[in-house]
Design goal:
With 309 residues, the protein is of the alpha/beta class. It is built from 10 helices and 9 strands. Helices cover 42% and strands 14% of the residues. Strand 7, helix 8 and strand 8 form a beta-alpha-beta unit. Helix 3 packs across helix 4.
Length: 309
């Protein structure tokens, strides 16, 4: 049994190494046949200037899109896979589809992130490309990693203009935030301080996708009370947010899938050197942060909640 585990470990490491070599040999530094992904600043400015919606695909969404049940907080179902495939194949205006900026260049990332993306793209790049529209080379994609602006970057100071640009998007606007029940965007920091109003709709911390069509129905039933002319929907609910942003856009709303943005902002404020657990907030990438307490919950936060699914 022990020897079998050793062989599996060696096999896993060799596979990772092989995928990194595959990436370097085939796509590293080569722009040909790779999607056109904007920089983070270009992504945010385009969203702001054109009032676009955003649905993002990262490694987790790609796994589920390909039917791979690898997520610790969202089970893979045929319905979710179908929805994600619909979103990623979109060619209509009004919503940007986010892809990672790592198809051919990982130079701006720290070594651990560089190695991850090389391994990931080495293994899955061709399968992802097959799911994109046939004219994907003519499409301008948003940068999925625009919301992961601190912990993975080699140059931490690069996050400052990204943060400031994001804040300009919602300055003076009412926000309805649809988030996991323990996510708590903006609690204890000033990320959304300049929004004119902030309301919350809570989803389960795990398997949130199962609730998104109930949320859509609730919004339609209650829009006269809560949705204003300039309301911006901000979503942070894992893979469910990718689909939900798309469905809200189809209904005529501006919706931004901004998962990770609050945790990354907390890392920036703390000058964190690692992906630490943030007290009171669900932190998926740290095992100690997946069951946060309610230490940061107060009356102000509770009053912001307009629905809980």
């Amino acid at each position: 049994m022990f020897i079998k585990r050793i062989f599996k470990s060696v096999e896993y490491r060799l596979n990772l190494f092989g995928n990194r070599i595959k990436y370097d040999l085939n796509w590293g530094g080569v722009r040909r046949n790779n999607p056109h992904v904007l920089t983070s600043i270009e992504t945010i400015n385009k969203i702001k200037d054109e009032k676009l919606s955003l649905a993002r695909f990262g490694d987790g969404e790609f796994y589920l899109m390909l039917g791979l049940d690898y997520s610790p907080f969202q089970k893979c179902t045929p319905e979710l896979t179908k929805d994600l495939l619909e979103v990623v194949s979109n060619t209509s205006n009004g919503i940007m589809i986010g892809l990672p900026d790592t198809f051919n260049d990982v130079s701006r990332y720290e070594k651990k992130s560089r190695d991850f993306w090389k391994s990931f793209m080495g293994e899955y790049r061709n399968r992802i490309i097959e799911k994109l529209p046939s004219n994907y080379l003519d499409i301008v994609y948003a940068n999925t990693n625009s919301t992961r602006f601190y912990s993975d970057l080699e140059d931490k100071t690069a996050c400052i203009p990204i943060i400031e640009s994001f804040k300009e998007v919602w300055k003076g606007r009412p926000i309805i935030c649809i988030e996991g029940e323990k996510t708590r965007l903006g609690v204890g920091n000033d990320l959304f301080e300049e929004a004119s109003e902030f309301k919350r709709i809570l989803l389960p911390a795990k398997n949130a996708y199962e609730k998104i069509y109930e949320v859509m129905d609730w919004i339609e039933e209650n829009k006269n009370e809560y949705v204003k002319e300039n309301t911006l929907f901000i979503l942070a609910a894992g893979m469910a947010a990718t689909v939900l942003a798309y469905r809200l856009w189809q209904k005529g709303y501006q919706a931004l899938d901004l998962g990770h943005i609050d945790i990354q902002y907390e890392y920036y404020l703390r000058k964190a050197k690692d992906k630490i657990a943030i007290p009171g907030k669900y932190t998926n990438e740290n095992s100690n942060g997946r069951n946060p307490d309610d230490s940061i919950v107060d009356e102000s936060y509770s009053k912001q909640i307009i629905a809980n699914f």
